[in-house]
Amino acid sequence: MSADLIRRLIEATSEVIESHADQLTALDQAIGDGDHGVNMARGFREIAAQKETLAALPLGEALQKAGMTLVMKVGGASGPLYGSLLMDMGKAAPAGIPTLPELATMLEAGVAAVQRRGKAEAGEKTMLDVLIPVSRMLRRLIQDGRDVDYGTRLVSVAAHALHRTSELKATKGRASFLGERSIGHIDPGACSSALLLGAVVRAVEETLTPTGTG
Ligand code: ADP
Ligand code: MG
After folding, report:
1. Residue 15 near residue 207, CB atoms below 8 Å
2. Which ligand approaches the C-alpha of residue 21 most closely?
3. Residues with C-beta atoms within 5 A of ion ligand 2
4. Which of 86, 103, 131, 204 is deepest in the core (most CB within 10 A)?
C-alpha cells in the first residue's frame, strides 16, 4: 500500500513541476532571478529517477531521502527549504500509512522546519504563505470533525492563498531586494507549493480509500 502511494506521489509531483516549470520560471523572472522552474524541475527529476528505491522504503524514510535529494540537487533557496519540509514531515511520519490527524502533524512539523530554516513567518511573500494556511486548514477540518471533502477544501485554500501573495511585499529571499516593487506579482515558491499540494491531493485520492486513512 505504502509503495503504491509513494510511487503515485512521486509521479504526480514530478509531473506537475515538469509541466509548470516555465510558469515558475516566469514568476521568478518578475521578482527573482528566473531559476525557480529550473531548480524545482532538477530536484523532482532526481526524485523521479529514484522512484523504485523510494517506493521500497517506509513513507517516513522515503520522505527524508527525497528531502535530502532536494537539499543536495536544487540550487537556490528553495532546495534547502523544500528539503527541510520533506525531511521533517518524514521524521514525524508514523510507521504505516498516516491517518488524517497524523498527516496534519507531519505537515505542521514540515512547515515549522521551513520556518526555522528560512527564518520567515506568514505574510513575507514566500512559500509559507501557502504552506501555513493549508496546514492550518487541514487541522481545522479535522477538529471540526464534519464530513467534508478535504482535498477540495485544501486545494481551494491554497489557490486563494497563492493569489493573495500578489498583494504582499517581499521581506525574505531575493524578491525582498525589490521592496515595494515586489507587490503585484505572485510569489514563485508559493506557486510551486500550491502546485505540489494539488498533486499530492490527487495522488492520495487515487491511492487511498475515500476516508483518506487507508
Ligand atoms: P532563489 O531565490 O535562491 O533563486 P528559488 O528561485 O528556487 O531560489 O526559490 C525562490 C522561492 O523561495 C521564493 O519564491 C520563496 O517562495 C522561497 N523563499 C525564499 N526565501 C525564503 C525564506 N527565507 N523562507 C521561505 N521561503 C523562501
Ligand atoms: Mg530564483
Report:
1. no
2. 1
3. 28, 32-33, 35-36
4. 131
